[in-house]
Amino acid sequence: MIDSKQASAALDDINDVVQRVRQSRIYQIASLIIIVWGMLLLAAYIAVYTWPRQSYMIWTMMNLLGVVITTVMGISINRRSGTPRFPIRGLTTFLLIVAFGVYCTVWLGYFTWRQMTVFWALYGMVFYAIAGLWFGYAFMVIALCTTALTLISYYYAGSAFLLWMAVAHGGGLIAGGLWMRRI
């Protein structure tokens, strides 16, 4: 027989394991999505650097592709876990975030192309930081590192700004996603 203190300690140990497994599962799923978005951003920055006149088309297509890939990944993950539902909350959340960002950049602010690029990178990192508060420190680390690299590129990259952003933003997400998979 175990006494109440031993039972309480055992339950605390079980809760600790459950929390670690939950965080590990979140990191495994999120890291795949972060890596995909990092690759898309890396490609988009290089494409915009190569074909600057097509920047709106490039960003629109890359973002739509990212939403489609993320949604398909969400459906696939839900089906594997026994939840056959469409990930409507995740898609709706993403669309609300984008809608507010578009509102800020189109109606509230008059940004240069460089400021617009930095705004979207930093705006996205705010949500990574918020995710870090809820789901684990890795999101916070990715947000802080990517934000720092983005600000360095804004102030110091000069004409290589888009190439630096490809490494800082896209590469930062890829590296962060790979790091998350090892935690």
For the biggest sheet, the summary is: none
Order of helices and strands: HHHHHH
- Give the mean pLDDT: 88
Helical run tally: 6
Quaternary structure annotation: single chain
**Helix percentage:** over 70%
Task: Kindly report how far apart the N and C termini lie.
Answer: 37 Å
Count structural domains.
Answer: 1
- Please give the number of β-strands: 0
C-alpha geometry = elongated
Beta content: under 5%
Radius of gyration, CA atoms, in whole angstroms: 19 Å
The computed structural class is mainly alpha
Sequence-ordered SSE layout with sheet pairings:
Blueprint (H helix, E strand, L loop, with lengths): L3 H47 L4 H26 L7 H21 L4 H23 L1 H20 L4 H22 L1
Helix pairs in contact: 1-2, 1-6, 4-5, 5-6
In brief:
The protein has one domain (18-182). With 183 residues, it is an all-alpha fold.
Task: Please tell me about this protein's structure.
- By secondary structure, the protein is an all-alpha fold.
- It has one domain (18-182).
- The chain is 87% helix and 0% strand.
- The protein contains 6 helices and no strands.
- It has helices at residues 4-50, 55-80, 88-108, 113-135, 137-156, 161-182.
- The radius of gyration is 19 Å and the shape is elongated.
- The chain starts with a helix and ends with a helix.
- The mean pLDDT is 88.
